[in-house]
Write a structure and sequence with these properties.
5 strands, 5-stranded parallel β-sheet, Rossmann fold
């Protein structure tokens, strides 16, 4: 099973991914680690990425997904995956991906971004992420206002329920 945790910057993808990884014992991959240096430079300057900038990044994440699926091993991966076309690319030829959408409103996420200082994604780019976001239809949707522990528990409960309903 591949758990792909998605949402806008500041929604808690890394924090939740690491906590879920600890809970389940699955390896964790932070999507930010797969950005080419050009993308990080652009975002650090407050310039939003274009689709053409995102493709190499998405393909690098897709490689990790493919490797785990070939080995039939589990993983937890974070990736903003803001557009349906990005999620389609990541899920292409994959059967065991569950998208987990960390959903929060603009004001909540903005407050979170204002508190963090060591990330390349700056708060002035948050609006562009919300404008780009195409909320997923077939995802486990989690409210970012819950505690970390409650979010992890909810992900596990909803994921198992989704798997169980797919088996019927």
């Amino acid at each position: 099973m591949i758990y792909l945790i998605m949402g806008v910057s500041g929604s808690g993808k890394t924090t939740i991914g690491q906590a879920l990884s600890q809970e389940l014992g699955y390896p964790f991959y932070d999507g930010d680690d797969f950005h080419p240096s050009e993308n990080i430079a652009k975002m650090s300057q407050g310039r939003p990425l274009k689709d053409s900038d995102r493709i190499p990044w998405l393909l690098a994440i897709k490689t990790v997904i493919n490797e785990h699926q070939q080995l039939q091993t589990d993983a937890i991966i974070t990736c903003s995956a803001l557009k349906q076309s990005y999620r389609d690319l990541l899920a292409e030829n994959s059967t065991d991906i569950i998208f987990i959408y960390l959903k929060g409103n603009y004001q909540t996420i903005l407050q979170r971004l204002q508190k963090r200082s060591e990330h390349f994604m700056k708060e002035n780019m948050l609006l562009s992420q919300f404008q780009t976001l195409e909320e997923p239809k077939n995802a486990v949707i989690i409210d970012v206002n819950l505690s970390i522990e409650a979010i992890v528990k909810e992900i596990i409960n909803q994921t198992y329920a989704k798997i169980d309903s797919n088996l019927k």
